[in-house]
Amino acid sequence: MTRSFDSAGERDVVEFGDMQHRIHFRNPPYEEHSALALAKAPDDVNRIVHGMGFRDWWLAPRRASFLGHQGSRAVRMLQSAWKPRRLGKGSVVFCQTLFPLSWSPAHIAFLRNARRHGACVVTLFHDIDVARGRTLADADGLSRDSRDFLDNSDVAISHNARMTEWLVARGVERAKIVDLGIFDYLADGFDPAANVPFERCVTIAGNLGLHKAGYLADLGSITDVDWRLFGPMFDPIRTKGPTLRHCGCFPPDEIPRRLTAGFGLVWDGTSVDSCAGGHGEYLRINNPNKLSLYLASGLPVIVWEESAAADFVRANDVGFSVRSLREIGARLAALSEADYSRFKRNACGVSAKLRTGHFTKAALAKALALMDNTAQT
What we know:
The protein is an alpha/beta fold. It has helices spanning 29-32, 40-51, 68-82, 105-116, 144-151, 161-168, 216-219, 277-282, 289-296, 308-316, 328-334, 337-354, 358-376, and strands spanning 2-5, 12-15, 22-26, 55-58, 92-97, 120-125, 155-158, 177-179, 201-205, 226-230, 244-246, 263-266, 301-304, 319-322.
């Protein structure tokens, strides 16, 4: 095994002799958002794939401001052409998409050139913005950035079976898609307590801004539930009620220790009666990071019954689904302590997998096996 440095002179690249190179094609914007929850999932994937033998490659020097915008762009395009020459047949390039942070013509050129030199590309999709109405779709129903990544990937890792069906309906070949199931949530030094007091309360963690979670403005009208809110952008004027309280805002690595009772709620959009609006409808195919947070914390969950998450919840018996938030009070009142203990026990089982990267490892192993099978046929 030999070691070398990338063009920035800052990142150690490990080359495994005659074995395949495993390259994690990483983009600086993830680090720029490391203090935000949106960086949690890609940062965890970074750590997991490193443990599988992948090493970082940056596309351009991290300190290129002296070149100016055009100069930096030119360097990126040059690197996208010559860096893939260091790869060869049997090499694997793994990349993540976190639109709009991860896409540029240079990134696509890198992937295209890597494949021309015999490397295989695996892309994990964190979000498909066109599915929640944030970008315009082309004639095939996909945005340009999504299509570019899909066309230059040998295998795409989708959130779940519903997202896979959504992609297939828009012309993506089913044989090149692997389902993730759920995003992992690494939590060093944390182990959820299996025997916590049975409480009929509901936690909502995440972005509490009404532009995204507009339903919070009406949540206070549902007074038969003890609501506990965690996260930024809380509006105490428009989000209030006699059974609703804001419990603070904590970093992604700390908050699992704060979620110790009741259920976690996976809900989004503009209404308490349904997951309406772009953010709400996106739950039909999306694996939201808060689902991973709750389960990694050992909390059972409540989800919208039409969401993709509902399939995971039913399959693993880690909670229940509802059509409207107005149903939750009656469901909790009828819930026995034995039922909650079963949900809690199963959630702790899933937690152990999430906190060790089980789902990412399994999906990437399937992707590598799929490429091996394709190469042999």
